[in-house]
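lol forgot to send this yesterday, sorry. struct tokens for the thing we talked abt
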């Protein structure tokens, strides 16, 4: 039987909530102070900025938290109208948040009710179960972050899957690798079943959705069993999951609701490098570890100027033992923690 465990890591400026499934990361929620993008479930008083009836969309001004779009449906919306909305999908790098309209707004444009925090999301998933904090939580969150950014993942029992988001869809390539046996059909089937289960876990971890295509091993053998396995694997993502049949070419296509900002969008800049904020948060964790190992020492963190700008206010929360030096010309990834 599958076992889920729940972890909450807290550090200055950031909370990371993790769910593991049978010892592997399944979900990662990252919440950072000062990053006010609309969260799932948040409610806003919004102003209709523009209506595009050809697209059936209304473009909304949320105030300080940016913009959102809403389907017109049966709502009769006009430019300048004030409406109350709820965020049903968080923003992505190239797309605005999606909201549902709940009626007219009676207050000025802005946040009315914040969405659940990372800790509250975790508590809801744990449903009364134990939530682990401390060193074990930090390790679980570090491992989850690392797994989010990896493309190729090993499968239990052998083989790999590679998960690559594109503008149009998320492609998942299944590779049997060196996994073999006398009954090839059985090995192929077991590889595909495992890939579907692991793919579901990893999509939840990475916060990916939309159109998803599994390129399975073989050419569609035992399609009914594979579709049934997909139904089980993605049951926790309902409602809104649509699973197609396995094609004769051996592909399984499904549509997943894209509710969350992909975790990679939170960790990386648009050029694929870790953002200055991500590097700064990693340095905070490393400084805490160094400080524990040598309680009487003073430390200086040497880093690139853009990282130092983010890091300085975070170190203030740790006390006067820690300082930061911005070194012009230093690469963002090149950091150093020195004893003074």
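and heres what i got for the seq, position by position
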């Amino acid at each position: 039987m599958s076992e889920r465990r729940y972890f909450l890591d807290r550090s200055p400026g950031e909370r990371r909530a993790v769910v593991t499934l049978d010892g592997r990361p399944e979900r990662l929620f990252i919440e950072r102070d000062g990053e006010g993008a609309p969260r799932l479930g948040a409610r806003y008083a919004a102003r209709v900025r523009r209506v595009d009836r050809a697209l059936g969309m209304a473009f909304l001004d949320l105030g300080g938290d940016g913009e959102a779009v809403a389907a017109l449906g049966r709502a009769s919306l006009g430019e300048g109208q004030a409406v109350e909305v709820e965020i049903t999908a968080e923003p992505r790098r190239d797309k605005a948040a999606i909201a549902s309209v709940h009626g007219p707004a009676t207050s000025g444009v802005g946040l009315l009710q914040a969405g659940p925090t990372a800790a509250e999301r975790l508590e809801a998933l744990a449903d009364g179960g134990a939530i682990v904090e401390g060193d074990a939580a930090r390790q679980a969150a570090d491992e989850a972050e690392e797994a989010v950014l990896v493309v190729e993942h090993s499968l239990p029992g052998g083989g790999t899957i590679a998960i690559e988001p594109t503008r149009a869809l998320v492609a998942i390539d299944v590779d049997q690798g060196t996994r073999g046996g006398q009954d090839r059909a059985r090995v192929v089937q077991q590889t595909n079943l495992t890939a579907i289960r692991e793919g579901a876990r990893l999509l939840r971890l990475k916060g990916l959705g939309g159109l998803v295509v599994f390129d399975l091993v073989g050419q569609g053998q035992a399609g009914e069993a594979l579709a049934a396995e997909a139904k089980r694997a993605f049951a926790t993502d309902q409602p809104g999951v649509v699973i197609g049949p396995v094609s004769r070419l051996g592909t399984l296509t499904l549509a997943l609701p894209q509710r969350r900002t992909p975790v990679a969008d939170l960790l990386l800049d648009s050029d694929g490098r870790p953002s200055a904020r991500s590097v700064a948060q990693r340095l905070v964790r490393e400084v805490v570890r160094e400080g524990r190992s040598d309680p009487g020492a003073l430390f200086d963190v040497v880093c690139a100027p853009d990282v130092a700008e983010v890091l300085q206010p975070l170190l203030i929360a740790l006390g006067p033992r820690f300082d930061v030096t911005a070194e012009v010309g230093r690469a963002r990834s090149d950091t150093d923690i020195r004893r003074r």
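The chain has a mean pLDDT of 93. anyway ping me if u want another try
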